[in-house]
Amino acid sequence: MTTANRTYLDYNATAPLRPEARVVMLAAIDSGIGNASSVHAHGRAARAVIDQAREQVGQLVGSKATEVVFTSGATEAANWAVSAPWSIIYSANIEHPAVLLPIKRSTARHVVLPVDANGVIDVVAAATLFSENAKSGGNAAGDRQLLVVQMANNETGVLQPVRQLVVLARELGITVLTDAVQAIGKQLVDFTGLGVDMMMVSAHKFGGPPGVGALVVRDGVDLPVLIAGGGQERNRRGGTENVPGIAGFGAAAEAADRDLASFLELAKLRDRAEEFVSATTPDAVVIAKDARRLANTSCLAVPGRRGETSVIKFDLAGVSLSAGSACSSGKTAKSETLDAMGLDEKLATSALRVSLGWATTLEDIAAFEQAWASIMGERGEVQSVA
Ligand code: PLP
Predict the structure, then answer these.
(1) DSSP codes joined into one string, 254-288
(2) Model pTM greater than 0.90?
(3) Using a 6 Å CB cutoff, which residues line ligand 1?
(4) Residue nearest atom 7 in ligand 1 by C-alpha distance
C-alpha cells in the first residue's frame, strides 16, 4: 500500500523519519562499522557514532550526555524507572499507558493526583497529598517516593505544571520522573534547569526511527540494572547497541533542536484548522482549547459522531488522523485521559486527534478542511444522535 499523495496529521502517534536521520542510518548500515564494544577501528567507528548521538540527544533535552541511557523507547524507559523499589508513586490518570500500567503492576502504593476539566494536575491538591504522606512517615529515611508527571498530553496536547510540581516534590525528597515524549522537539525542554531526576524520551515522536529512545537519569539517582549483560550503557542496559537506530535518534535530535522555532509556528496552522472547524460545525468542541497546550495538537469532538467512524471516513478521504488515544496500532478503546477529565461520554467517544509536525504544510490543512467539510456535512450516524 502506498501512502504517497495522502495527508498525514498523526504526528503524536509517530512522526515521519527526518531526512537527516535517514542519511546517517543508511551510512551506519552501509559503512560496515563494527560492534561498539570492540577495540579495533570498526568498533571505534561504531562507538563514535553512539557518542555523537548521546551528545546530540543531551543537547536537545538539556542534560549532560553522560545522563542519557539509550533504550528501545520510552515504554522501556518508563518500565525501568518505575521498577525501582518505590513505596509510593504519585501520578494522575491522564498519564500514558506506558507509565500507568507499570505503576499499576508495581508493589508501590499508587496515589492518584486529581486533574481539572482540562486534564491539568491540581497543584494545591498535589501539595496536600505529598505532605500528608510525608507526615504519616511515608518518606522517612530509606523510604523512596516517586512522582510521575507528563510534560504534554498525547491526546490533547495540554501541558502540565511540571516546574511547580518539581519544586514541591524536591522539598519533600520525592524523586521526579517526567514523561517528555510529546514535548521534546515541540517546545524547549531543559532536564537540568527543571530539576527533574529522570526523563523519558522517544526518537520516533520527533522524526527519529521507532524502537529507540532513552531514559535520562540524573547522576546519583539509584536505579536497578535494567538488563544484565555485556556491560553496555555503563552496566545499566546490556545488549549490543542498535547503532543505526541510535545514529538516527541523534541526527533527528539535532534537527529537531534546530527547528524548534519553526515548530512553534505550527500553532498558526493548527488554529486555522480549529477556526474552520468551529465555523463550519457550530456544535464541534475543541477540547482544552483555552489550556496551555502544544502548538501542534488539536483534539476535536462533534457530539453524535463516533470517533472511530470519522477516522475511517477521513482515511477514505486520504487524511490520516486518529481517534482517542490511538498510541498503539488499531486501538479504539475509550480514552483514559478524556475520562479522567470528566468529559461527557458523547463528546469523549467522538474525539478526533489532529496532530501536526515537521513536514506539515498549508496544503495538508487545506486537505483536512476539505475532508472535514464533506464528512461533517453528511448526516450523522442514526444510532449516535439519539
Ligand atoms: N509517553 C507518551 C506521552 C506517548 O505518547 C508515548 C507514545 O507511544 C509513549 C510514552 C511511549 O513511547 P514509545 O513509543 O517510545 O514506547
Answers:
(1) HHHHHTHHHHHTHHHHHHHHHHHHHHH-TT-EETT
(2) yes
(3) 73-75, 96, 98, 150, 154, 179, 181-182, 202, 213, 327
(4) 327
